[in-house]
Amino acid sequence: MITVPAYVRAEVADGGPAGPWHHRQVVSAEERARRRQLRDAYKHAERTARAALMPLDKGELDDLVKFVDARVVAEGCDHTRRFTVQWAAEHQVSLDRLVEGLEEFDGYCDCEVVMNCDPDQIYG
Ligand SMILES: [Zn+2]
Asked: Entry's InterPro entries (predicted)?
């Protein structure tokens, strides 16, 4: 079922113009606020769904990123996840699931884990 917005119904009743070509001008402040709210809710749901792929909690991911960052700064990134692997082994974290989670956020090597897997961005 198609729900016709109130402003369209009002205009049709008035005999005034109503159609997609006219929507731009008649979108009310309430409608804009409602759309913004839907968009925010969608973004929030999307972030939550992606964060669920990360097998770490925010504190653990923060610990991992700090660990890897310090080593990448000291020794450089060799385009593998050697420091990530080391952290996972030391913390008894399943590497398969961790890699899957990191790749969801484009963490394909140690320096990308540091750059792309920011806990604040992933968990909000
Ligand atoms: Zn790298």
From this structure: DUF2695
User: CA-CA-CA-CA torsion for 30, 32, 33, 34, nearest 10 degrees?
Assistant: 90
Cα 49 to ligand 1 centre (Å): 26
Q: What is the pLDDT of residue 92?
A: 95
Rounded to whole angstroms, the Cα distance separating 116 from 110 reads 10
Which pTM does this prediction carry?
0.71
Distance 59 CA to ligand 1 centre (A): 23
Rounded to the nearest whole angstrom, what is the distance from the C-alpha of residue 31 to the centroid of ligand 1? 45
Distance 123 CA to ligand 1 centre (A): 23
Whole-number Å distance between alpha carbons of 32 and 10: 18
Q: Could you tell me the mean pLDDT of each successive run of 10 residues in the chain, 124 residues long?
A: 59 54 72 94 93 95 98 97 98 96 97 97 91
Q: DSSP letter at 53?
A: T
